[in-house]
Specification:
Elements: H1 19-35, E1 39-40, E2 46-48, H2 49-56, H3 61-66, E3 68-71, E4 77-80, H4 85-95, E5 104-113, E6 125-134, H5 139-156, E7 163-168, H6 172-188, H7 195-203, H8 214-220, H9 232-248, E8 253-254, E9 266-273, E10 282-288, H10 292-295, E11 303-309, H11 310-319, H12 325-328, E12 333-337, H13 340-356, E13 362-364, H14 371-380, E14 385-389, H15 391-396, E15 398-403, E16 411-414, H16 418-428
Parallel strand pairs: 1-5, 7-8, 12-13, 12-14
Antiparallel strand pairs: 2-4, 3-4, 5-6, 6-11, 7-9, 9-10, 10-11, 14-15, 15-16
Helix pairs in contact: 1-5, 5-9
Length: about 425
């Protein structure tokens, strides 16, 4: 017997009972970004592999271990995008929309792909919402990105469950000086480092700061600190960011070990973390990447952005039970019609109501059925009210109106008055 078809491990279906919460989250974010003046951009899922090698860095874990890379029929090396910033930079360069110092405030949404060990909150196909801002170099735009996320957490009801961590990586020059000092210190403690950190010491030493190994963490206690190597420009930028966060009243924690996993970051880096999701504690992260556009062949262009993981934030909403009541109810009103004449009248009546109440979630029974079976489906739909259209109602040109979720007697409503009645009852209900 052939093996049954199933999804690839770590690439999950999002089922109908899950999508309402996803749509709520995505809609909340989209509305917030519209209000702050950001515009959506949509990039391909597949890019040339060289794009990610040049931007992310060839010695990062993503490029070395995690990318889904393949050759197409033309012999080109292609990769399923592991993150969105590189693709967005490629897009703005290709179409010239940041030329001449044009400010662009962009956002995108979609799946990313990394070959990781699947676990709760970490998947091989995962979804992100990302923001990228070009040609603004002050700490004010860094602060705006963080302030927006702070407002989002408040709207979602999860603000008390997240914490902001901040660091500055300085310019490439100051980071280079720090890298030399860090390598010198860690080399003197080489045998005390775990195997992965020993490898990173030769390829990407700043990532040693990210280690979860307790012995290596003990070595890092006395390691050089990035703050001692910051140039004056980076220090002033960081102080400006902190002053703005203080002015808005956003609490934060300075984390000198925060370096992020991508090579292109400079100056500001930040993460929103939580202790509500076990090991997968980062729900949103980003920072400044002022040299990336030039590194990818463009003119010097400042950039800053972040990405948030939709799976993790949806999981947080579920864990903290911050799901609006209307999310679990997909139908407001369910129309039951008995007999062909009533079905035809019900269809026409439903469309007239939809014309007048375009936001009303009105479901018309399909597949006919007895009075009992249709009411069973009406109740299962989660609707607040049932509309009843049978021979008696047809004769009087009324519709039966029956509450399904609370007190109240069934009543008859004239067809012409139905939309007005529903507008009042559904809003009040």
């Amino acid at each position: 017997m052939s093996k049954s078809l199933q999804a690839i491990r770590g690439m999950n279906d999002i089922l109908p009972e899950q999508t309402p919460l996803w749509r709520y989250f995505e809609g909340t974010v989209a509305r917030l970004l519209d209000n702050y003046g950001y515009k959506q951009i949509r990039m391909p899922i597949v890019e040339f592999t060289e794009l990610f090698k040049r931007s992310i860095g060839e010695v990062t874990d993503i490029v070395e271990k995690e990318m889904y890379t393949f050759e197409d029929r033309n012999g080109d090396s292609l990769t399923l995008r592991p993150e969105g910033t590189a693709a967005c930079v490629r897009a703005v360069l290709e179409h010239g929309i940041t030329g001449g110092g044009q400010v662009q405030k962009l956002w995108y949404i979609g799946p990313m792909f990394r070959h990781e060990r699947p676990q709760k909150g970490r998947y091989r196909q995962f979804h992100q919402i990302g923001l990228e801002v070009f040609n603004l170099d002050g700490p004010d735009i860094d602060a705006e990105l963080i302030t927006m996320t702070w407002r989002l957490w408040g709207e979602l009801g999860i603000r008390d469950a997240v914490k902001l961590e901040l660091n500055s990586l300085g310019t490439s020059e100051s980071r280079g000086r720090y890298r030399e000092a860090l390598v010198e210190y860690l080399s003197a403690h080489h045998d005390e480092l775990d195997e992965d950190s020993q490898r990173r010491l030769k390829t990407n030493p700043l990532r040693v700061l990210d280690t979860k190994n307790a012995d290596t963490q003990a070595v890092l206690v006395n390691a050089p600190k990035m703050a001692d190597y910051l140039d004056d420009e980076s220090r002033a930028h960081f102080e400006g960011l902190k002053a703005r966060l203080d002015a808005v009243g956003i609490p934060y924690v300075l984390n000198p070990k925060l370096v992020r996993g991508l090579d292109y970051y400079s100056k500001t880096v930040f993460e929103w973390v939580t202790d509500k999701l076990g090991a997968q504690g980062t729900v949103c992260a980003g920072g400044r990447y002022d040299g990336l556009v030039e590194q990818m062949g463009g003119k010097p262009t400042t950039g800053v952005g972040f990405a948030m993981g939709i799976e993790r934030l949806v999981l947080m909403l579920e864990t903290l039970e911050q799901i609006p009541e209307e999310i679990s109810r997909q139908v407001d009103v369910y129309l039951c019609a008995f007999g062909e004449e009533a079905e035809l009248a019900g269809l026409a009546l439903a469309e007239r109501v939809r014309d007048q109440l375009p936001n009303l979630r009105l479901q018309v029974n399909a597949g006919a059925g007895s009075f009992k079976s249709q009411f069973k489906k009406a109740d299962k739909s989660g609707a607040l009210y049932a509309l009843i259209l049978g021979d008696d109602e047809m004769a009087q040109q009324v519709v039966g109106f029956k509450p399904l979720r609370g007190q109240g007697e069934q009543q008859s409503i004239a067809w012409d008055a139905l939309a007005a009645h529903l507008a009042t009852c559904v809003v009040q209900g």
